[in-house]
Amino acid sequence: MDLLKQSYTHGSSPLPPNATATPYHVYLFGGNISKSLSPLLHSILFRANSASWSFHLTETTDSEIFRKRLQDKTCIGTTITMPNKVSFGLLLDGLTEEARMIGAVNTSFIRLDKNGQRRHIGTNTDCIGIRDSILYRMPHAATAAKARPSMVIGGGGAARSAIFALWKWFGSTEIYIANRLEAEVDALMTFFQSTAPDITLKYLTTVEEAATCETPYIVVGTIPNNIPREPGEITCRKICDTILRRKDKGIVLDMCYLPSPVTYLYTNGKGNGWTVIPGTEALVRVCIAQQILWLEKDVNQQGVDDAMSAIWKAVNQRQSGPKASKI
User: Fold this and answer.
1) Which CATH class is domain 3-124+281-320?
2) Are 125 and 289 in contact (CB under 8 A)?
């Protein structure tokens, strides 16, 4: 079931016939979001669809501010980032399967119930961004990955989205986890035992395990591009290096894109013959999925191309600027 069709299981469209000419607003809620690239990308995508809509940053963790925005009839949707992905999701009227199983919401959209009342539905488009960025580069990936293991680097919220995507759309038989802290992996495994018990997770703790396990077809990185210093970080790096040096090759997607999308994982994967995908592509695909839910139509290809070009230019400018830093 495609994204838009699935959204209508939560209600009917709230958009009037002249929706693109109506001055609707979308809001991003989170902490430390002043340098977010979402306004740049969404303004490009809105313009490409001839929508006179606007995108606003709301730097807050206050749930009452979030509630008030939802009550505004000109609010057509929201994006939600850290640290609000769990707490704000609880304030919405319904959740999609992705949001329930991942346990975090990064997007809300509106559908009308049978009485015409607005319902704010929470979903997770991070997993869709992962899926679509892989399939755009490698259309056969869903077939090639089926019945093979995958690997996720990290143990936080982005790792949850990656695990769900690899299980749901790529049919991974087993998903390896490489992470610096065992406690984070334990929490991850406990969580998915309650929401998706069919997912098989394996924590790789040694280089020897990485050298002898079946080579994963898809590797998704979800951690910052920092130099490893602590013992757990060093071991995690060695495990990843060992996997990438294996004879069999597949796909590497690194979600990290700041201060540069050309990360250690990206460079190492490319150098070892893997197909590599930068985090900038995943971010654009996340935004495209959000636009489809709000505008209720596909984004045209020119808008996608413009967004891809703009984000590369933006991150390169930040990297070369005098105050470039990671977010």
Assistant:
1) alpha beta
2) yes
* CA 297/CA 31 separation, integer angstroms: 30
Q: What is the DSSP letter of 140?
A: T
For 128-149, what is each residue's pLDDT tens digit? 999 999 999 999 999 999 999 9
Contact between 79 and 38 (Cβ < 8 Å): yes
Over the stretch 236-260, which tens digit does the pLDDT of each residue have? 999 999 999 999 999 999 999 988 9
Q: Do domains 3-124+281-320 and 128-280 have the same CATH topology?
A: yes
pLDDT tens digits, residue range 192-242?
Answer: 999 999 999 999 999 999 999 999 999 999 999 999 999 999 999 999 999
| 1 bridge partner residues | none
The domain made up of 128-280 is a member of CATH 3.40.50.1580: no
Q: What is the DSSP letter of 174?
A: -
Residues 244, 236: contact at Cβ < 8 Å?
no
User: What are the structure tokens assigned to 137, written together?
Assistant: 């580069």
- The domain ranges of the chain are 3-124+281-320, 128-280
What is the 3-class SS of 13-71, one letter each residue?
A: CCCCCCHHHCCCEEEEEECCCCCCCHHHHHHHHHHHCCCCCEEEEEECCCHHHHHHHHH
pTM over 0.85? The answer is yes
Question: b/e per residue, 147-168, with b = 16+ CB within 10 A?
Answer: ebbbbbbbbebbbbbbbbbbbb
Please name which of 153, 158, 159, 197 lies closest in space to residue 179, comparing C-alpha atoms: 153
CB 259 within 8 A of CB 318: yes
